[in-house]
From TrEMBL, chains A, B:
Organism, as annotated: Enterocloster hominis
Keywords in alphabetical order: CBS domain, Cell membrane, Magnesium, Membrane, Metal-binding, Transmembrane, Transmembrane helix, Transport
CDD domains listed in its UniProt record: CBS_pair_Mg_transporter (cd04606)
Domain CBS: 199-255
Membrane topology qualifier: Multi-pass membrane protein
Subunit structure: Homodimer.
Entry-linked InterPro entries: CBS_dom, CBS_dom_sf, Mg_transptr_MgtE_intracell_dom, MgtE_N_sf, MgtE_transporter, SLC41_membr_dom, SLC41_membr_dom_sf
Identification of the protein by name: Magnesium transporter MgtE
Coarse class of the protein's main subcellular location: membrane
A Pfam family assignment: CBS
Gene for this chain: mgtE
Similarity comment: Belongs to the SLC41A transporter family.
Protein localization: Cell membrane; Membrane
Length: 450, 450
């Protein structure tokens, strides 16, 4: 929705032209209505919400942020509330309940039918980030002796409540999953065809305890619109749809970004996370890395006499440290992302290492040459210092690439998250290596005692 | 597919038990067959490919990497080739052609019907990463005076070739998009209902030149399974399906990871990118950052006398630089990712800044206290040096958070990619600031002349 359009709606609300506002709202999408309602004060939010037709109101409700939902729940009657909750898809209702304050949750659960309540509670009990926690229980379940015509009749009758009707699951009496049939296949076959002759019995499925990231990978790999979730006894309990999986993919990528920048992952969007929570997520790794970099400091102390004799040596420390850190981060980022996408396996370690060493030689050579030219111009006559810096630079880049590509793979082998072996950690390690090489070289080439 | 299972298939191929192999292959998914075929040598690849039923062979072909496709194309007859190309969905065919060597492309295009060739050429001409380049032309197009029954008949007749049939588009004679109707809606309405009474006329659509990232955002926001693509005169030319968009999302996240680690984005997966290409992507930013960090070096030279007088000062440089860089990267990563997801807008700059300053104070305080305790134990008696280090640490963290959150937003305002203001760039800038503060403080507190 354009900002202009939103402005117009806000003006209508401001001037209390509710009839015109209602007409305008009916023309637009529920996502846009929700985005418009977020701009309203809490009193107007409820007024606008009440003017929407019931079905649309539920759709809009699912799109609102937790605060607005909570405010609406507190302002409407129990009857209105129960209608909304019953109309929400179970996974949307679960999402909502996870974010609302406990008193509001109690009121919501009080106003649902026992069936819905049971479903919601069941979902709330699955471990966080598991397939069970993101699945929905609304799917089309068919029997194998049904015909295409009977299936259509069943879908027509039961389908409106199902989040996706395009993939139907065939179960026996004990709800064991026997096959899968898409509406496309139903449409392409004659009305009298029995499902057992057209259903695909090789169903790709996941269990309730499967990690959501694995589910996303699977749906991605096989290009599925939805995937069935079964319990430990292979009984169908729910499905996961592609839109939930897209959210999971974004969340997982965000988590990797955060971890790779030395933060604990956060639950909420940045602007909704409290300052205290942000600080809490950031302090642990900063502390660890701060204390680790005292090792690098200790190395500097050890070579005190070297830079006391040739103070110019100190001025190249930032360049060596930064370039080493950056070169290492490049390699570790490529490897971490490659492993997250399943493009790189731990068994590829030698292939990766051989590649990075060659890249390190090329990159190191170019940087060394550029540096040598610059240094010879800037400090003519100090040839041996220039040679020291240039060789250290080359060695730093090659070492950084080697360390940067092996540590994330090592972490994976040890069942740790490779993302912790990203830029900050690699930088700290490479810094120490780089300065050791630099001052050792300086001592030898410039004929000094350490 | 389990490795075990793959092993079994490979053994069958090895022992030339092709009958058993074929039976086993018919039981599994096309994605898994392709993954199995990647392990075979090129001769066996063709043998296995030929034993697959025609429809399955095309599906498997679409999943194979470019090298295997190219090898198969070179080994099969023109008739076999033309059958495959005609059966592929146009967007898969385009994907394939973009990666094959020119001679192979010519052979492929020679063996397609003029219609398919025209379609493919049309797609190949849309700018890279545009909606046009990822769309497919196979969709279900209906007319508004058709009934539900007629629509089903049309879908049954034309639908098999359409990549997704679940969302149907209603067009006038000039192919202008008039509305959209889902198969779910068709199923829920009586057979004699006319489409114009049930179709949704507020179609969410994109133009051919729209950036693919914007398309992904849009489908994500509105939770669409597919989105129509129109040309500049609002005529329907294709659709983009959710599985293509999931690929786009992964690509875009990968690109951000690469840019944020100071690399030019690469086109291919890591293991398929040449060493030379990898080096070429990494050198430019390393050079820029290497030369920028000489500024930090120059600052060190300026304060030469300070660390000549108190050599211990040098040993805290790595800790200050690393902590500053890490603190700044944390902030910039949060802001860059927040903007990529549309959670943070440039207009939120003051909100973000106020948040980061408070976080900076909290984090800086904790790090300073821990540091103070450590230093007082390690260097008893050097109180003023400890105070200098601790105040510098606090100032560095606050400055790093401030710089880290404002620069990416600034880049966005200047229409630059915020991702370039990530860890490496922020680190270089914060390093210089941090050392300036440190040595200035040292000169004042320790009563030295700069």
């Amino acid at each position: 929705m354009e900002n202009e359009e939103k402005e117009k709606l806000l003006n209508l609300a401001e001037e209390k032209k509710y009839r015109q506002l209602k007409e305008a709202l009916l023309e637009i999408n529920e996502v846009d209505i929700a985005s418009f309602m977020e701009e309203l004060d809490s009193e107007k939010t409820v007024i606008v919400f009440r003017m929407l037709p019931k079905a649309l109101a539920t759709d809009v409700f699912a799109e609102l942020p937790a605060e607005s939902q909570s405010h609406i729940i507190n302002s409407i009657t129990d009857k209105e509330l129960s209608e909304i909750v019953e109309d929400l898809y179970v996974d949307d209702a679960v999402d909502m309940l996870e974010e609302l304050p406990a008193t509001v949750v109690r009121r919501v659960l009080k106003n649902t039918t026992p069936d819905t309540r049971k479903l919601i509670n069941q979902f709330l009990n699955y471990p966080e980030n598991s397939a069970g926690s993101i699945m929905t229980a609304e799917y089309v379940g068919l029997k194998k002796n049904m015909t295409v015509e009977q299936s259509f009749a069943y879908i027509r009758h039961h389908g409106v409540d199902s989040e996706t009707i395009y993939t139907c699951y065939v179960m026996d009496e004990k709800r064991h999953l026997e096959g899968v049939v898409t509406v496309k296949e139903l449409l392409m076959n004659a009305y009298e065809t029995r499902l057992e002759t057209i259903m695909d019995t090789h169903v790709i499925k996941v269990t309730t305890t499967e990690d959501q990231e694995a589910v996303a990978d699977m749906m991605n790999r096989y290009g599925l619109l939805c995937i069935p979730v079964v319990d430990s006894e292979d009984r169908l309990v729910g499905i996961i749809t592609v839109d939930d999986v897209m959210e999971v993919m974004e969340e997982e990528a965000t988590e990797d970004f955060e971890k790779m920048a030395a933060m604990l992952p956060s639950e909420k969007p940045y602007l909704k996370t409290s300052v205290f929570q942000l600080a809490k997520n950031r302090i642990p790794w900063l502390l660890i890395l701060m204390l680790s970099s005292t090792i690098t400091g200790a190395i500097l102390v050890k070579y005190e006499t070297a830079f006391a004799a040739v103070p110019l040596l100190v001025s190249f420390i930032p360049m060596l440290m930064d370039t080493g850190g950056n070169s290492g981060s490049q390699s570790s980022t490529m490897v971490i992302r490659g492993m997250a996408l399943g493009e790189i396996e731990p068994s590829d370690v030698l292939k990766v290492l051989w590649k990075e060493i060659r890249v390190g030689f090329m990159v190191g050579f170019v940087l060394a040459v550029v540096n040598f030219i610059r240094l010879m111009i800037q400090y003519p006559g100090n040839t041996m210092i220039c040679v020291t810096v240039v060789i250290s630079m080359f060695a730093t880049v090659v070492a950084a690439k080697t360390i940067g590509c092996t540590l994330p793979i090592g972490a994976k082998v040890l069942k740790l998250d490779p993302a912790i072996m990203a830029s900050p950690m690699i930088t700290t390690i490479v810094d120490a290596v780089s300065l050791m090489v630099y001052f050792n070289l300086a001592c030898h080439l410039l004929d000094m005692a350490a």
